[in-house]
Amino acid sequence: MSPRALLAPFALALFAAGCAAPGSYPSLLPRAAESASLEEPVVSAPPAPAADPALDARIAAVLTKLAERTAAFDTAAAAAERLVARAGNAPAGSEAWLDAQVALAELDARRSAAVEIGSDLEDLASERALALLPDYAQLTAAVEQVRAAAQSQAARITAFQTRLAPA
């Protein structure tokens, strides 16, 4: 086979390419979408919310109320402790057992007052969230403080109940 015969198909392809109509063809350079990064953008921490004196005053008032109710619970818990100790091994339905049960019911009512305070604070937090305001650290801390107090009180009541004869 001659070299001309080998070059003939290539020459034919070259001539056919020259027959293409002139026009505007898209660029073969990378497009913006092809060179964009698929990494998550770095999000900076939101700025701390500005101090809200009105909210701070409401939080302080609620925490004062919590302190008062916690003190009342502690006083009632001391009385309940004595009644539960006196009821010790008394059978269910005895006078001492009934006195201890009444004291525990009073403690539970006082504990529910702390839970009510927590609900008030959580309502404040919900209002802020609905208004698309950032978390307020003092409010979050107050909610946690109230939850901890309510859990502690519930644990004390449960401890007293386990020392009494079952009904």
Question: Could you characterize what this model shows?
Answer:
The termini are far apart. The protein has a domain at 115-167. The radius of gyration is 38 Å and the shape is elongated. α3 (53-87) runs parallel beside α5 (137-162). It has 167 residues and is an all-alpha fold. The longest helix has 36 residues, at 95-130. The chain contains five helices and no strands. Keywords: Signal. Residues 1-20 form the signal peptide.
Provide a concise account of the structure shown.
The chain contains five helices and no strands. It has 167 residues and is an all-alpha fold. Helix 3 packs parallel to helix 5 (137-162) and helix 4 packs antiparallel against helix 5 (137-162).
How would you describe the shape?
A: elongated
Structural class call reads mainly alpha
Order of helices and strands: HHHHH
**How many strands appear in the DSSP assignment?**
0
Which radius of gyration do the C-alpha atoms yield?
Answer: 38 Å
Enumerate the spans where pLDDT stays under 50 for 5 or more consecutive residues. Answer: none
Content of β-strand:
under 5%
Number of helices: 5
Distance between the termini: 111 Å
Largest beta-sheet characterization: none
Q: What integer is the average pLDDT?
A: 87
Keywords: Signal
Signal peptide: 1-20
Protein name: DUF4398 domain-containing protein
